[in-house]
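Hello K.,

You asked for the raw outputs rather than the summary table, so here they are, unedited. I folded two proteins back to back in the same session to keep the settings identical. This is the first:
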Amino acid sequence: MRKILLAVILLPQLILSQFNIVDSAINLDVYFPIVTTESPTTIYMENTDFPVVKKSVNLFAEDVHKVTNQRPSIINNINDIKKFKGNIILVGTLGQNKWIDELVRSHKLNVSTIQDQPERYLIQTIKSQFRKNQNVLVITGSDKRGTSYGVFSLSEAMGVSPWYYWADVPVEKKKEIYLKNLSYTSKSPSVKYRGIFLNDEDWGLLPWAANKMDSNIQNIGPNTYEKVFELVLRLKGNMVAPAMHEVTKAFYTVPGNMEMADSYAIMITTAHCEPLLYNNATEWDKKTQGEWNYVTNKKEINRVLDERVNEAKEKENIYTIALRGMHDEGMSGGSDEQKFKMLDEAIKDQRAILTKYMNDPIVDVPQIFVPYKEVLGLYEKGLEVPEDIIIVWPDDNYGYIKKVSNKKEQQRSGGAGVYYHISYLGWPNDYLWLNTTPPALMYTEMQKAYSLGADKYWLLNVGDIKPGEMGMQLFMDMAWDFDRFNFENINDYQVEKLTHIFGEQYTNDLAYILDRYYYHGFTRKPEYMTGDWKWNSLEAKENIKDTDFSFINYNEAETRLAEYGKIAQMATKILKELPDEKKAAFYEMVYYPVKGASLYNHEMLLAQKNRWYAKQKRTTTNELAAKVVLYHDSLADITKKYNNLLNGKWNGMMTAPGFLPQVQIAPTKKIITPKDGSLEIFVEGSNSEKTENQTLPQFSNLNKQSHFIEVYNTGKEPLNFYTNTSAPWLILDRLKGTVQTQERINVSVIWDRVPNLGQNEGEIIIHTSTEKSIIKVVANKQVAPNNSIYMPMDGVISINPTNFHRKTENGGIHFQKIPGLGYSNEALQLGNATFDQGYDSYVAYDFYVEKPGEVSIQTVMLPLFSKDKEHGTAYGMQLDEQDIVVQSNFVKEYSQEWAKNVMRNSAINSIKMQIDTPGIHTLKLHVIDPGMVVQKVMLDFGGLKKSYIGPKTFKFQNRKQE
C-alpha cells in the first residue's frame, strides 16, 4: 500500500490560497470588509453587462446571505455610487462597465494581464476616485465568463462550495467576512472548452428531475438544467452536452432549455452521434421521415439539420460534425468504402449548412469531430477532416484513450480534445452505479493526451452527476489548470477537498478510505463482481458466476473483504461523529459509495464462498447464505436512506434500474445438515473441494508469513480435535478445541529453531475421535547473496515494478512511478508517450535462483492503446544477456480478450525463458513504445497458484511484504 502522509490543509484550491478570508479584522487598511456586523458591502454592476454576469452577481449576493444571513444590495446607477459613502464591490466585464473602463483609462486599474485573453479575471482592491475614504473591490473579467469565474472564486473562498446544491456541502456560518487587500490575476485556462455530458439518465437523473424539478413536463427541463449550468459555471466550465436518450425529451424541443443555457453563458455541445445539435434518438420519426440513412434519405436528414442550426444560430454552440446510425449505433451504408464516401459527403454538407447561417467565417465556428467506434477506422483510412475542426479523441468507454494526435495532427489549427468516461452503459458491462475511476488513471491518460496537444476540448461523461461528484470535480479542475497536478500530488487532491469540508482531523482516515476504495474498485469494479463479463441486455438479470478472487490462495478474497469492511467501518464512524449539517454531504460523497461497494463485494464473495462450502458440506454453508441475504438487504437499506436524505431531495436518483440488466440477489446453496457429521480438514492452497494433497504452502525465512488449516464440521453435534507437531520450529495458534462449525489454525515457523539450510520437512497431526490427518510442512531456510535481491517465495517472485535495482534512461526517456494505480497500487510508466522510441532505456531487477530451469514471466500491464497508428504497444523483456523478446498489449477492440482486459483493468502477457545456471540473474524491461504502464511482474518457477491478482509483491530490501 502506498504511504499516506498527514498534510496540513489550509484551502482546497490553488486559487483559494490567493485569497486570505478572515471573519474579523482589526486593521481595515489591510482588509476589505465584505460583510461587517453592521451591514454587507454594496455591490455595483451595470445593466448593460451580460446576463450571466447579472446572474452571477445575484447568486453571489445569495452566497453572502448563506454565510452571514445578510444579503448585500445591488445597485447599477453610477450616480448613486458618487453619493454613496460606504465601500463598494465593483463587478463588471471589460467593455461593458463604464466605471471599470474609466479606471482602466485613468491607469488606476491595470488589466493588461487579462485583456483580450479568454475567460480570465482580475480581483483587486483600490481606492475610489469618488470619495477619499472609499475602498473598492474590483472583480473584472476579460469576457462574460471570466467575470463570472472571478465572482464565484470569491464565493468559494468565503466558504460556498460549487457543490452546495448537488452534494449538499454545508456553508459555515460567519458574522463577518473580510478579504485581505490583494491583486490577483487568474491564469489562462489550460483547456479551451471544458464540460460534461449527461448520459444514461434513464433511471437516475430523469426520474428525479421529472419528480422533483420539472414535474410539469415529467422530464428533464429548464429547472434541472439551471442547476446543472450553475454547477458547471461555478466549476469554471463552459459547456454541457445535454441528456439524449430516447426516454428524454430532446434538449431543443423543450421550451426554456436553450434560453437557460444562454443565461448562464454555457455553450451547448452534443454527443458524438448528434450532428449539428440534432438528437436523432428522440427527434427522428422513422414512420414519417423514413430511414436515418444518408445514402437513401440525405435530403430529409439535411433538412432537419438545417432547421436546427437556424434555430440555435444566435446562441453559443459547439457543433458536432458527424454521421452515425440512430442513437449510438454504427452508421449504415454498406462497405467501409461506401461509409467512407458517405461520411466525407456528410462533412461537406454540414459545413455548408453552418456557412449558410453563421456570421463568422466557418473556420471561427466551434466544431468537433469525434472518431468514435467505427468512425475511427474510417478516419485512419484517410478521411479528410477540415483543419479548423477540433478532433476529439474518445477513450474506449473504460478510461483508456484510443488514440492521440500524431506529429502531423498536432499541427492542425483546430487542435484536439478528449471525450472521457467515468460512467458507461454498454458491452461488455456497465458501470453506472459508483465512480471508481482512480484519480491516478484519469491523470495518467489525460496527461498523455494533453502533452500531445489535446487542449481544445475536454468532455466528461458523468452519467447522472451523482455519485460522480469527486471525479467530475477533478476533471474540471484539471481542465482549468492542468499544470497544478502531477503524479506525486494527484492522489492527495480528493483527500484535500474532503478534508476541507469535513475537518482536518479526518485527513488520515479519508486518505486510507480513498486509497483502498479506488484500489479495490480498480482491480474489479463493484458492478463487475457478478463474475460475468457479458452484457446481457436482452435478459432480465446478470449471469452470476464465481469470480477469480481466491479464498484458497494468497488470502486474496478475505483480504479484499477485510479491507472493504475496514473502510466501511471507518466511514460509518466519521458519519456518526459529524455534526448534522455535514452528514448528508458525507453520506453522498463518501459513505454511500464506500459502504455500498463493501456490501456488494460481501454479498457476491460470500455467495461464492457459500457455493464452495456447499460442495464440502460444511455446517456453516447455510449461515453464509443467510449473510448474503443480510448484505443484499443492507444495500437496499442504505440506498433507500440515500433517496430519503433531506426529506427526499434525491428520491429516485440512486434507485436501481427496473428495465435494464439488473443484479438479483446472489445465488446461494443450502444443504441439509445431519445431526452427526465428521470433522474434515482443509489446507490452504488446496485446489479441490476437499483437501487431497495435504501439504501447506512452503514457508520461507525471507517472508515471515503464516498459513492456515481449517477444521470444519459437517454435522450439528460439536466435535473435538487436538494437534501435535513433529518439529519444535512449528507453531500453531490452536492446539486443541471443540468445533461447532469450523475453526482456523494459523501455522507459523520460529526460524531460529530450524536446523538446516534448504528445505526442512515437518508434519502437523490433527487428531479427531475417529481418525488423524497428517499435513506436511516444508520450511525453506535460505541465505540471500545480499540484502537487496529478489528470491523465489513458494516458487514465485512477485515484483512491484517501481522497485527496480537500476535504470538506464537515454534520449530524454524517464521512468515515471505512478502511485495509486495498478495491481501493486503503484505502477511504472515506461517513458512518456511524447517520445517516439525507447533509445535502449530499461529498468533492471536482480534475482537469485538455487537451480536452473524454466521460468514463466508474467507482466501485468495497463490495457493501453497505441498512441497513434505509427506506433504500437510494445515493450521488451530480457533475461541476462539473452535476446530481447518483444511483448505487446495489442488486442482487437471489442474482442473477448479486450472485454476481459477492460473488466480486469489489465493486459497480462506471459513468456517462458530458460535459466541455465543457479545464482544471480537480471530481468530487464525495455522501452520500445514509450508510455506503456507496468502494474506488476511475476516470475513463476512452478509455484504460481490460481487467483485474481496473484501473490503480494515484495520489496527486495529486506524483502518486506507490501
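The second followed immediately with the same parameters:
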Amino acid sequence: MTRSPVVFLMATIATSLAQPGLTGTLYTVPNGTFFQQPAGETVTTINDTSGSISTLQTAINSARTANATRFLIINLKSNTEYLVTTTPLILGSKMCLSGSSNTSIAASSSTTATSLIKITGGSSYTSVNYLTLNGNQADLYGIEAPGVSRVSLDQLVIRQTGKDGLFLQGLGSANFDNQITVTRCEVSEATTAAGIHLSATTQATCLDNLCHNNAYGILLESSAHASLINNQAKFNTLSGIGVTNITWSKITHNLCQGNGTGFSIAGATNLNQWNFIVSNEIRTSSEGISLGGYANVLHDNLFASDVTSPLVLRSDAGVNRIITTSTPLSAPGQDYFYPPTALNRHTNPIMNGKGRTDITTSATTLSAIQTAYNAARTSNPNNVTVLQLTAPTITGDAPLSLSSNTCVLLDGTIKLNPGVVAFSAANSTFLSISGGTVDGQNTTGRNGVTFSNCSRFVIDQMNWKNFGVKTTRVTGSDVLALLSCGTPSIVGHCTLDGGAARGIWAKGGGGYIMSDNSSANMNMDGIDVDAYTSYSLIQFNSTPGNIRSGLFVEEAAKYNQLIGNLTSSNPIGINVYSMVAGPTSYNSFIANTCQANTRGLRTGGAIYKSTNTTTKVVTTTTNRADHNFFFNNVVRETPKSSNSSDAAICAQAYGSENYFVRHSLTSNVKDYSDTTSAVFFNSPFSTTSFTPSSGYFDWQQSFAWSASASLPDADPNQNRLPNLLEYALDLNPLSETPPTLPSVGWNTTTLDGPWLTFTYRHNLKADDLTYEILSSDDLLTWSVLNVDEVSTFSETVDANPDGDGSCEILRIRTFADPSLNKLFLRLRVTRQ
C-alpha cells in the first residue's frame, strides 16, 4: 500500500512600608462574628443542595418573601457547577452568597442570560465571595450590578466573559454612602471588555486583585474618591488600569505588566482632575502612562527599561502635576518637577523651560548659607537653584528662607539653636529638601519646617529628631508644620523622633501626600490631618509611641484617604474627631494596622458652646464625625483599660454613617465599646485561599512581551506556531531558533505492526490543556485516537529532555491497517 504519513498542528481555545509597585498582600482575612448588628441579630441561612440555579432562586425568593429585612446567608453546594441558561442568579439587598470547595457558576452552551449573577438596582449590603464564575465566552457579564451601594465582592475567579467580568455601578460620584469593594479577585479573558469595571461610584475600593488577558484590567469611570491599591494588571490589550472622568481618586502601589498601555487617564479636563497616580510600577508596555485630564498628580512611579514611552500626553491633556524623583520624563506643557534628591543626585533639567544653577557650599551656619543662596538667585533669577550643603555639621543660627524653584540637598546635620526654624517658605512652589538630619537639640517653641501656602514641594529622605521631650506639651513645637498648603505637598521616607507637639502637622489646604514616614514619640500625634485639610493621601506611614494619637484626622478634615499605615502603642491608634470646627467626614481608612493602642479606631465629636461678646447669646454646636469609611483594618492587642470606651473599635455619639467593613480584630481585651455612630457590614469570609492561576498565564509571565504578542493565537517569532502551541510543546515563543516540531514515523520493527508513530513534546506544567492525537484517512473526517494498549499505545521517549523537569517527549504508536492506502495524524491542543 502507499503510505503517506503527514503531521498537522492545530490549536483551539475551548469555549468551555514600601517601594513602588506591589507591597505584598494588603488584605487581611476578617473575623467578624456578626453581620450588621453586634447583638440580637437573626439571619436566615439557605444551604443549597440542589445544584440548580432555578431551585436556588426559588428558595431565595421564598426566604425574602417570608422576611423582608433579614440578612439571607446563601451557601452553595460544594463540588458543583451551577449552569445559567436564560436567567442569572438574582440577588437583592442583605444577601450574602458564598461558594465552597470547587463551586462554580457557568454559562450553558445556549445561554441567553445577561450575566451569571445579577445584583438588582437599588440593592445594598450584598456580598459574593469564594466562587468561580465561567462565562464560557458567552456575551454576558460575570456579575452585573447596576445602581447599587455597599456591595462587597471577595475572592472570586471570573473568566471568559463576553462583557465585563465584574460590572458594578454605584449611585453617582456625588452621592456618598455607596461604597463598593472588590478584593482578591482574579478576572481574566474578557477579551473585548474589562476585568473589573466600576462606574458612578464614590469611595469605591479595589484591593489585591489580579486582572489579566482582558481588554482593560480595571476600568474606573465617572467616579470620585476611589482607591485602587495593590492590584496586578497583566497582559490586557488596551490598558492595565484605565480611568475616565474621575476626580480625587488615589491609584497607588499597583503593578501593570505587559499591557498595551500601563495606565490610561482619559476624559475632559473639567471631569478628569485631581487624581493621584502614586508609587505604581509599570513593565513591558509600549506606553507607560497615557495622561489626559487636568491637575492630576503623578509621583514616584517606576518605569522599567522595557517601557517604550513612559509618559504619553493625550491630545486632550490639560496641565497636570508631575513630580518625579527617580526617572526623568518628557512632559512639555505640564507642571513638571524632577528635583535631585539624596538618592538621585542627577544633573538633568529640573523644570520645563528653566535652567539650573548648582551651588555647593561647605558653610557651617544657616545664615551664611542664606547669603550664598540669595546671591545665586539674584544672579540667576529664572533658574532652578540647587543648593548642596556639604558641611558635616551646620549651626542653625537663623531660618533658611526658601523661594520658589529651589532644591536643597543636605549631607550632614543641622543643629538648631533655640527658637530657630530650619527651613521656612511662604506662597512658594517647586521646592524640595532632601537628605541629612535636623536636630532640634530638645529645644522647643518653634517648628523644624514651616511652609505656608506652598505647593508642589517634596520633603524627602530626612531625619528629624529631638524637638522636645514628648511628656511635656509646648505649643508651636511641631516638627513639620504645613499650613494651608496645596496640591501636591509631599513628605516621603522621613524619620521623625521626639517632639513636644506633633510630628507632621497638616492644617488646612489639601492634596498632601505623606508616604513611608516614621513619626514617633510626639507629645500629640505622629501625623495630624487637622482643620479643613482635604483630598490627601496618607499611606504606609508608621506612628508609634505618641502621647495623643498615632494618626489624627480632625476638625472638618474631609475626603482624605489613609492606606496601609501602622500605628502602635498610642492612646488612640486612628482618631477621627471634631470638637469645634464642624463635621469630620467622607474620609477613607483602608488596610491600616492598629497594634497595642489603648483604643484602636475611634470616631466621635463634641458639643461646643460659644458666647457672642456683644449680645451674650450662647450658641451650641454639635461637632460630629460622619460618613467615614473604614475597610479591612487590623486592630490587635488592645489592652485592658479602666475607661469603658477603650476598645479595638469605638464609634461614639455625635456622628452617623461611619461604615465599618471586613475588619480583623485579634487578641484585644475588648473588641467593641461604643457603636452609636457605626454601620457594620461583616459579610461572610473564607479562610481558604484560591490557588492563583497557573497554566498558560504562568507561562505567559515568564517572557517579556506585550499583551498583543502574548495572546494564545499570536505568533511573535513568526515561525507559524501560535503561542498556544509553543506553550503546549514547551518552546520559547520569542526564539528565532527553529522549533522542535512533532514528527510522524513508520515502525516495522515492533511486533504486531506495522505502526504509525507520532512523537511530540508535552509541557508538564500545562494543566489547563487537553492534548489529543487525531487520525483521518481522507483529511475530512477526524477521530480521536484512544490509547487502548491494544491497537494504540502511549510511550515516554524522554522523561526530561531539557534537564529542568518542564516537559517530556511522548510517542503515540497506532496500528497501520494494511487495508488503508493512507493515514494522517495531527495534534489538537485545547485550552479550557
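Confidence is low (pLDDT under 50) at residues 1-16.

Happy to rerun anything if the numbers look odd on your end.

Regards,
P.
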